[in-house]
Design brief:
Elements: H1 2-8, E1 12-20, E2 27-36, E3 52-61, E4 66-73, H2 79-86, E5 95-100, E6 107-111, E7 114-120, H3 126-133, H4 146-158, E8 165-167, H5 169-173
Length: 187
């Protein structure tokens, strides 16, 4: 399975779960997703915290392709790292939703036949924002496993057609703003 491969490569960080869905051959993951690996800290090859991650990542994948990928990143420029590291596993049916700190307006870009939805977010939780984006309710997940909840979101995205402006990647990169993530500590 593709998620097993990513895990063995050390691309998961702060994992919430990785488990099989009730849809045969599909696995779900929630947690951090490494974009740039941390520096090697010792002779055993252990690595420090990755300097660039896709936080709050939500991913569905089968043996060789990613069906759904969502997460948050600080800079739109990191989209190229996402594409370089994970884009080979995208198909035109892949749903990609990225919450980006340094953009001011939601937009869409198409890269290699894959539509990528970009939504500004300086404060919030990816899962909650993703569920809101496709207008699902708590009752839509009743009785489902954590993994199957991702399948429900993925299925909702199949018919979802955002009305956000469509731009080229170059145009989108030209629309970044100066913004910082709002970090909240313990309450």
């Amino acid at each position: 399975m593709l998620l097993d491969q990513f895990e063995k490569q050390g691309l998961f960080f702060y994992s919430n779960f990785k488990e099989a869905t009730s849809t045969g051959g599909v696995m779900a993951y929630r947690g951090g997703l490494v974009l740039v690996e941390g520096e090697i800290l010792d002779e055993q090859g252990r690595r420090g915290k990755p300097p660039v991650m896709l936080d709050g990542a939500v991913m569905l994948a089968d043996a060789d392709r990613i069906g759904l990928l969502a997460g948050t990143m600080d800079e739109l420029e990191h989209l190229q790292i996402v594409l370089d590291r994970y884009g080979a596993y995208f198909t035109p049916d892949t749903r990609v939703v990225l919450y980006v700190v340094n953009i001011g307006d939601p937009m869409q870009v198409e890269v290699a036949g894959v539509n990528i939805i970009l939504i500004p977010m300086v404060d919030g939780i990816v899962w909650n924002e993703l569920v809101d984006e496709v207008r699902l309710e708590k009752s839509d997940f009743k009785g489902q496993s954590s993994a199957d909840k991702l399948v429900t979101v993925f299925n909702a995205f199949k018919g979802y057609r955002p009305k956000y402006e469509k731009l080229s990647l170059e145009e989108a990169l030209g629309r970044t703003i100066v913004a910082e993530r709002v970090d909240r500590g313990p309450v």
